[in-house]
Amino acid sequence: MNSELTIVGGGLAGSEAAWQAAQSGVRVALFEMRPRRGTPAHVGDQLAELVCSNSMGARSVDRATGLLKEEMRRLGSLIIACAEEAAVPAGGALAVDREIFAEGVTQRISEHPNIDLRRQEVKHLPDGPCIIATGPLTSNALTEEIVALTGQDQLYFFDAMAPIVEAESINMEVAFRASRYGRGEQDEGDYINCPLTEREYSEFVDALLAAEVIPLRDFEREDKRFFEACLPVEVLAARGRDALAFGPLRPVGLTDPRSGGRPHAVVQLRQDNLAATLYNVVGFQTNLRWGEQKRVLRMIPGLEGAEFLRYGQMHRNTFINSPVLLDATLCFRMPTPNSGNPIWFGGQVTGTEGYVGSAMSGLIAGLNASRHLRGQPALIFPQTTMIGALLYYISHADPGDFQPMKANFGLMPPLERRVRRKRERYQAYARRALSDLGSFMDKVDMLQMARHTGERPFV
Fold first, then answer.
1. Distance of CA 35 to CAs 9, 10, 39, 117, Å?
2. CATH 3.50.50.60, the chain: domain bounds
3. Using one digit for the tens of pLDDT, what is the confidence trace for 78-106?
4. Going by C-beta distance under 8 Å and a sequence separation of 6 or more, which residues neighbour residue 247?
5. What percent of the chain has pLDDT over 90?
6. 3-state helix, strand, coil in the chain (%, to 5)
7. C-alpha span between 399 and 262 (Å, rounded)
8. Could you say which DSSP state residue 224 is in?
9. Which of 97, 130, 169, 314 is at a distance of 20 to 30 A from 382, taking alpha carbons?
10. Are strands 27-31 and 4-8 parallel, antiparallel or unpaired?
11. For the structural domain made of 4-154+320-443, what CATH number should be given?
């Protein structure tokens, strides 16, 4: 049996998969086409580059993404470890300095004795056992191979990057620091907030709706569906004048120190690097032309002199019909053309939405591929864990209406006893999940993983 595992793609999922397999003793050839060939969204050549937000979601285990991160941490996740090392203040969320995070992942992968990092494009499916973790911007040549493999056209949706502004250009005589309901770790709050009156909000919405957008390209005109988690701000505004005020601009839990009251709407900015010199505009993914972005966003109080170091962009994402094509171990269900060797998929191409979901699928693909190479049975995680629930969804959902899914407690089996209060119910889900994960790990051969067994408080 081939003792080397080929992994295509050096993003979050591919890096995590390579780490898990290498840690188990398997030799890994990890292919990443950058910098020899770039993508429309990436700007550097580091592995695991974050191209959208710098946030990996809530830390607390009574939040779905927080629970998923904790389960991954206990399984020895490289991505979670590097994220913690590169963390920047973000209230109750885990946000990172993008460069420090990517550098950390790249260094660990490059230095691992069982990983051979190869900077070249893969145009054909590898001959031996492999993991396809090429992400939302798979090259055209490999996309054609995947289409031929799956026997169906790939589906498309849109992902986004929010604008980034220079911290010194924010007018702090108008903007103020605070986290909702005072949840930040700093005394003054982790977010910068730009408050809008009702009149300012109305004028901003008018300008946003009238602004010029980037014309759709051919493939975008053929499929104009926007994935709900990444709606462009102008599309959301077009759904109703109050849509933004009840969405990304909701003012709940915030008090404007100038007026002593709650603003009509608030635009939040989140720290984007460890030096706190960059802030991203939360929830402002957009398809506006860059000149229009500058004009319209400078109408926001506090951003009238903002210097934009990156404008928002929209880019194509792809995902396969996983309920038809993958099982709960992320292995391709059908016969493969690469000498019959198994193929696993990891990352957003599987329908696991978001940074953490993407990394999680890479972790599981890496574990199961390495177990296959070592003659061990594949792992199917309990549905009572967030990992198991999410993987069960993408492998068992209705294939006729399949859409990517992020971690959420609605995917998990009901509790044995009903808990009415939502937070207490989520805490109960988390306790059950971590307990069942511990029992599951004790039952299988997981000695190759550097896992932590300490409990964290439910806060």
1. 12, 11, 9, 13
2. 4-154+320-443
3. 999 999 999 999 989 999 999 999 999 99
4. 236, 283
5. 61
6. 35, 15, 45
7. 45
8. -
9. 130
10. parallel
11. 3.50.50.60
Is residue 306 within 8 Å of residue 169, measured between CB atoms? yes
Residue 100 token pair: 């420090």
Helical packing angle, 422-443 and 64-74, nearest 10°: 20
Report CA-CA distances (Å) from 222 to 194, 216, 217, 399, 419: 37, 9, 9, 21, 46
Q: Which of 82, 87, 78 is nearest to 59 (CA)?
A: 87
User: Nearest 5°: CA angle at 169, between 168 and 174?
Assistant: 100
> What pLDDT digit, counting tens, does each position of 390-427 carry?
999 999 988 877 878 889 998 999 998 888 888 899 99
Dist CA 239 CA 344 (whole Å): 39
- Angle of helix 354-373 versus helix 78-85 axis, rounded to 10: 140
CA distance 177 to 229: 26
Helix axes 354-373, 12-23, angle to 10 degrees: 30
Tokens for 302?
A: 């506090």
The answer to whether the bond into 35 is cis (omega within 30° of 0) is: yes
Domain with CATH 2.40.30.260 in the chain: 161-315
- The continuous run of DSSP H or E covering 436 comes out as helix 422-443
Considering only the top CATH level, what class is 161-315? Answer: mainly beta
Residue 8: closest CA among 126, 155, 141, 128: 126
197-248 confidence digits (pLDDT tens): 999 999 999 999 999 998 755 544 444 444 555 678 998 999 999 999 999 9
pTM equals: 0.77
Q: What tokens appear for 294 in the block?
A: 């500058």
